[in-house]
Specification:
The protein is mostly loops and 78 residues long. The chain has a single domain, classed as Alpha-Beta Plaits. It is built from 2 helices and 2 strands. The chain has a two-stranded antiparallel ribbon. Bound molecules: iron/sulfur cluster (2 copies).
């Protein structure tokens, strides 16, 4: 599911549109609430959610994403 912006919380800073590497928001017009113009481009990286200073963005991850990480044999990160 693409990001949803709470218009009442949004500070219109444009940071989400600026940081999205996939251009989901498209061109940003100064002092406006960003528009999710290309929702199907979102790959749910969560960057806009984490960086939004107003905590105004919600993102629901697709069911296929929260798959538990399983360590492979021979992999040692500890
Ligand atoms: S980063 Fe948050 S506050 Fe800034 S424009 Fe995007 S939704 Fe609004
Ligand atoms: S979750 Fe990632 S890909 Fe999706 S709109 Fe936010 S920054 Fe862009």
């Amino acid at each position: 599911m693409p990001p949803i912006i709470d218009k009442d919380k949004c500070k219109k800073c444009g940071l989400c549109a600026q940081i999205c590497g996939l251009d989901v928001y498209g061109p940003y017009e100064k002092d406006t609430v960003p528009i999710v113009r290309y929702p199907s481009e979102c790959w749910h990286c969560n960057a806009c959610v984490l960086d939004c200073p107003a905590k105004a963005i919600k993102l629901k991850l697709p069911l296929s994403m929260p798959i538990l990480y399983r360590r492979l044999k021979g992999e040692d990160n500890d």
